[in-house]
Amino acid sequence: MSATSKFDREKRLTALAELARQRLAPTEAELAQIFLGAYFHRVPSDDLARLNPEALYASALSHLDLARQRQPGQPLLRAYNPTETQAGGTNPHTVVEAVVDDMAFLVDSASMVLNRLGYTIHLTIHPVLDVSRDNNGNLIALNHRSADARHESFLCFYISRESRGERLDTIIYELTRVLSEVSAANTDDMAMGELALSLAHNLDSAHMPGDDETRSEAAALCRWIAQENFTFLGAVRYEKSSDNDDLLSPKATSALGILRPRDGLDLIERLSVLPESTAADLKDTDPVMITKSSKRSLVHRPAYMDVLFVRHWNASGQLTGETCLVGLFSAGAYNRSVVDIPGSRQKLQHVLTRSGLPEQGHGIK
Predict the structure, then answer these.
(1) Dihedrals φ, ψ of 198, to 5°?
(2) pTM for the full model?
(3) What digits encode the pLDDT tens for the residues 87-112?
(4) Could you give the CA distance from residue 207 to residue 350 in angstroms, rounded to a whole number?
(5) CA–CA distances in Å: residue 223 to residues 7, 107, 203
(6) Rounded to whole angstroms, how far apart are CA atoms 180 and 225?
(7) In whole angstroms, what is the distance from residue 255 CA to residue 131 CA?
């Protein structure tokens, strides 16, 4: 029989709550007990069994202290090496903590940072709590049914030990940078999805060169990516400054997500993740072009980002600009049959038609 099979999970959680009752003032103990119950609720029993309870308690209370004062949108981060507790409990790992607004892609994006920096993640703790704060951001209640409570994510990673102070600073710097990207992508996610649908609508009625089938497929593709087949990370519109201008210029006011100027980086610096715009070739009549960025995503998964350029024409059929959408095709999209993907299915059909193979023959399959 394994050690874990003998482990009493509820007894361990009760013991942690009892430590709070014994060591803290009544009001603080009540808050800590609520926090401890939520904090370790989804931690696997194997991890609760192998880690020292004193170390677990100290780590959780440290995270609670980090969250004591915070404003909406403010990320709180800390990386440290635990010292031996009063009762002799030790944690052999470096602990990385964060308190942020709850949003998508937090755990995978933060894990990517730590892995990229060369650290092994031994434990991930990620409770989401309803947090009530006063006007100054001071924490006043947890998981209390209140109209003003906000969902906040508590991220904690136990990673391979790092004793170099400058490397701990690097961890915080890189996590701050990535969490800013995650926040920007989440903030504008709905707007970017609506933008894709708007582009589809515009293509439906566009006066553009080429055939109706190509235009229809391009519009269908814009709708398809808005149906959870694409993780939107950023968007920006390029426009001609005049009818005689062959150059397209990005419009800062149109930038969304990770392309939006922020954190001291202007639009041009943000656009460095994109390949050079292809609309400089004004004779190209393709309404949509799909390509790859040379930069890996900092959000969700570390793949090279997918980039779509969707072109715009005026009533005279002249190219006036393009919208760039940057993100990641979903994992499910890669598993779809090509006949289910707008644009790709049209190109496939053209190839098959030109092949001259019989429609019902084995060759065409």
Answers:
(1) -65, -40
(2) 0.87
(3) 445 788 999 999 999 999 999 999 99
(4) 23
(5) 51, 29, 11
(6) 24
(7) 32
CA dihedral sign of residues 260, 292, 307, 288: positive
pLDDT at 343: 58
- In single-letter form, the type of residue at position 183 comes to S
Domain ranges for the chain, please list them.
Answer: 9-102+122-162, 189-355
For residue 240, what are the contacts with CB-CB under 8 A and spacing of at least 6?
246, 247, 248, 249, 319, 320, 321
Phi-psi region of 257 (alpha: psi -120 to 50; beta: other; left: phi over 0): left
Reference 141, options 30, 232, 272; nearest CA is 30
* β partners of residue 323: 237, 310
Q: What pLDDT band is residue 355 in, cutting at 50, 70 and 90?
A: very low
Compute the CA torsion angle 95, 165, 116, 300 (nearest 10 deg). 50
Residue 72 pLDDT > 50, yes or no?
yes
Euclidean distance between CA atoms 94 and 117, whole angstroms: 14
Could you give the CA distance from residue 77 to residue 158 in angstroms, rounded to a whole number?
Answer: 14
Residue of 67, 41, 40 lying closest to 55 (CA atoms): 40
Residue 229 has pLDDT above 70, yes or no: yes
Percent above pLDDT 70 for the chain: 85
CB-side neighbour CA atoms (13 Å) of 72: 11
Q: Is 221 helix (H, G, I), strand (E, B) or coil?
A: helix
What is the identity of the amino acid at 237? Answer: R
Amino acid at 78: R
Read off the amino acid at residue 90.
T
CB contact at 8 A, 228 and 197: no
**Do 50 and 16 touch, CB atoms closer than 8 A?**
no
pLDDT for 284 beyond 90: no
Residue pLDDT, tens place only, 298-349: 999 999 999 999 999 888 888 889 999 999 999 887 776 566 667 554 543 4
